[in-house]
Write a structure and sequence with these properties.
Helix content: 40-55%
Number of helices: 8
CATH superfamily of the largest domain: Response regulator
Number of domains: 2
Structural class: alpha/beta
Order of helices and strands: EHEHEHEHEHEEEEHHHEE
CATH class of the largest domain: Alpha Beta
Radius of gyration: 18 Å
Length: about 240
């Protein structure tokens, strides 16, 4: 039996291309997901605010309200909802912007339906993996750093730190297991949800960006430490 078919997770498709929207609906229904569709950005955001969504497939260019603005509004909400962007824009800067404002992933059109479905399932696995840690900690506190797993919110010295979903998951995983060394391959598998062969450099760039947001001095990190030749660990000498 395919994963998640019994869970009946609800997925919102906000896409004004009717052919793409219908095709996505057919495949998602076959996997056992519930599907709601909207061709208008403002209407899509209203659906999110008035219902319980488990996932959003979001086009960037939409009538009424663009996908970037919708993503920003969704990330202001207390409950965390995974988002995959769909866009005809393939420039690297567009992908970076999409991920920076809180998207979990980004696919450019034309895309493979199989690839999209694989990424959706990978994101669900990533979130479930973190939620199923042996000791689920809703609140983690180290001196001035506070991590709220339920709201997926991080504050430093009382000020909110804006993290992307991947950055949050990296921080939460490391902070939940202080002192444990995570290799790049293990982080790729645990945080991204599936193996990115040849993308080990992705970990370093994300760690650097995360440090720039939570460390006073990124060159002399206090929280996220490097174990040379092995990987990264959260400092277990602070409380």
């Amino acid at each position: 039996m395919l994963e998640h078919t019994l869970v009946k997770k609800q997925i919102l498709i906000v896409e004004d291309d009717e052919e793409i929207s219908d095709l996505l609906e057919i495949h998602l229904l076959e996997l056992g997901y519930k599907v709601i569709k909207s061709a208008n950005g403002k209407r899509g955001l209203e659906i999110v605010k008035n219902g319980i969504m488990d996932f959003i497939i979001l086009n960037v260019l939409l009538p009424g309200m663009n996908g970037l603005e919708i993503c920003k509004e969704v990330r202001k909400m207390n409950n965390y909802i995974p988002i995959i962007f769909l866009s005809a824009q393939s420039e690297e800067i567009d992908k970076i912007i999409g991920l920076e404002i809180g998207a979990d992933d980004y696919l450019t059109k034309p895309f493979s339906i199989r690839e999209l479905l694989a990424r959706i399932k990978a994101i669900f696995r990533r979130i479930e993996s973190i939620n199923q840690e042996e000791e689920v900690q809703n609140m983690i506190e180290y001196e001035e750093l506070l991590i709220d797993a339920y709201k997926r919110k991080v504050t430093l010295r009382g000020e909110r730190v804006e993290l992307t979903p991947i950055e949050f998951d990296l921080l939460y995983l490391l902070a939940s297991n202080p002192g444990r060394i995570y290799t790049r391959d293990l982080l790729l598998d645990r945080v991204w949800g599936y193996q990115y062969r040849g993308y080990e450099h992705t970990i370093s760039s994300h760690i650097n960006r995360l440090r720039s947001k939570i460390e006073t001095n990124s060159s002399k990190p206090k929280y996220i430490l490097t174990t040379w030749g092995l990987g990264y660990r959260f400092n277990d000498n602070i409380t």
